[in-house]
Amino acid sequence: MTWETPARQRLRSAQIGRNYSAGSNNQESVELSPDRVGVHEGGRMPPEVAISVPTATHPCREGTDAMPAVLTPRATKAATLPRFGRAALALTVAATLVGAGTTPAPAAGPSPDPTMRDVASQVLDSGVPGYAARVDDGRRTTVTAAGVADRATGRPMTGRDQFEIGSVTKAFTATLVLQQVDRGRVDLDAPIDRYLPGVVPGGSEITVRMLLNHTSGLFQYVADPGYFTRMEQDPYHVATERELLDIAFAHGPEFPPGQGWSYSNTNYILLGMLLRKVTGRTMPDLVRRHIAVPLGLTRTYYPDPYARITGPGYAHGYSVSFGDPAPTYVDVSDRPLGGWAGAGGAIISTPDEVSRFLSAVLRGRLFSSAALTQMKTTVPLPDEVGVQGGYGLGLFRLDTVCGTVWAHAGTTRGHQTRATATEDGKRTAVADITATPGITATPGGQTRYAQVVSAADTALTCRMLNRPVPPTVTRSLTS
Question: What is the DSSP string of 202-238?
Fold first, then answer.
């Protein structure tokens, strides 16, 4: 990296990356090796400062999947448009596509998964503080971790850290809605006006299903030109659902209900309101009662609104000026995620627990087989998305270079997440990158970050499917 001094090169070899490999008996072996994270002279970074973000130029919006998860030069150009909507989401989807007790073993010997170890090294070389990936290929589970979870203390990533899962939350929210369908409290093809009368303009024509599969046409509130400027001016303001809806409804629809596809967090804010209306319970309570407790997920929760239940091992997220000679890292982990992200992107979890959730969903363990069929009934993605596949109820079906998978991406201001599984739920892969490009990231830094993230996601999916990683992906990682 051009910004890494010789002193930093010496210091980075002292940092620790971990790679765990579990066989069918769920025992894990641990290997330690130097990671490749850059540090400043003396191991300390300069004070992190808040950044005022002009909406039209910030390459990383603090909204779940509001901006491209991978910022290629074309994506960066599209992201600066006042109403990027469907075009930006297309790039997010493309990024997804190309994208019990343990017994430690001695910290020596070859890596259980050299491919993912190389991926982690290259991700950190792009300037990301930490990376974790959990891959279950149906025969063994390999967890790769590298870098630091907290730059202030130097605490290393472990692969078991909690993190912001972003829009992977949508699969949780869709699951809760389908549970209410099973209970007879919600009809997928009923208009949202039945449950939230007078709340949604044109709500008599927009069904619950349209909200779930993004065919409602409702404007994406995070695409409002002033949204992120206001957020940065008051980063700890806890936005209400009404505030977010007022922003969305100040704009006309993208298309008539059911006549197109456009990814919109507004849909899932409304679904969170629907759930509260028909159950009388809040999202934090519903996630705990109907998903976390039944599956034994002890480290998964919906923040209300701050991520306070972190316990030991929490991966901080950073907004980073990638490519700068002396990159700036802004820790954004203390922002009120439960406010601005809501039912579309607020959940905190771990790689293991996201994997267990996704597997349970695709095996139909949280709702009926009829509900699973509904979830997997997809609408085609528009041609401009640039990938083959469709969107169901809270999940993408993607036809990748290594095979067809069910997946969702998640983007918050400080995290990039990938959650992927096979249709039968027997193989899963989850990855967390603890940084996104900040306002002062250089074009070269953004491009390298984009290249590495895209290649890392492809490698993750291929490893899950036991397919060789294409040579073009390897070249992208190492070029």
Answer: TTTT-BHHHHHTT-S----GGGSTTHHHHHHHSTT--
Catalytic residue annotation: 167
Q: Tens of pLDDT along 129-180?
A: 999 999 999 999 999 999 999 999 999 999 999 999 999 999 999 999 999 9
Terminal Cα-to-Cα distance of the chain (whole angstroms): 12
- 203-to-180, 250, 262, 384 alpha-carbon distances in Å: 20, 15, 17, 27
Using CA atoms, how far apart are residues 404 and 381, in angstroms rounded to an integer? 15
pLDDT for the residue 311: 66
Asked if residue 88 lies in contact with residue 13, where contact means CB atoms within 8 angstroms, the answer is no
Tokens of 351: 């790689």
Residue indicated by tokens 């804010």: 269
Q: Which H or E element spans position 397?
A: strand 396-400
Percent of the chain with pLDDT over 70: 76
Tokens of 437: 């490009």
From start to end of 78-220, where are the E strands? 130-136, 141-150, 155-156, 163-164
Q: State the DSSP H helix or E strand holding residue 174, giving kind and residue range, or none if neither.
A: helix 169-182
The reply to whether the predicted model has a pTM over 0.85 is no
**Whole-angstrom distance, CA of residue 329 vs CA of residue 435:** 9
Provide DSSP, 263-325: --HHHHHHHHHHHHHHHS--HHHHHIIIIIHHHT-TT-B--SSS-----S-B---EEE-TT-S
Distance CA 220, CA 384 (A): 18
Q: Which tokens hold the place of 133?
A: 């990936």
